[in-house]
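Session log. Operator J.P. requested a structure for one protein chain; no other inputs attached. Running the standard single-chain path with token output.
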Amino acid sequence: MKAYYSYLGSQYKRSGCFSPEELQQFRSDLAELTKNSSKLQVALFRFKHVMSKVGTPIASGVRDIVIDILSEVAKKAI
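Structure written below.
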């Protein structure tokens, strides 16, 4: 997917994709979702926020995959 840049205020923003920092934060949030830590609620909030940006079909698919993975993690922990 080609990223297009537009000048907004003093920052350049890419439309249609996430920045490397946002992707790294998303990866770290996914890791936090597998733990029972104090960062869980914050990670869950950020996960939901990212899913609201990608649209319903993609969010639904990602959500289903994450639920499957978390279910397997829980099964292995038990």
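Operator note: Residues 4 and 45 are 27 Å apart (CA to CA).
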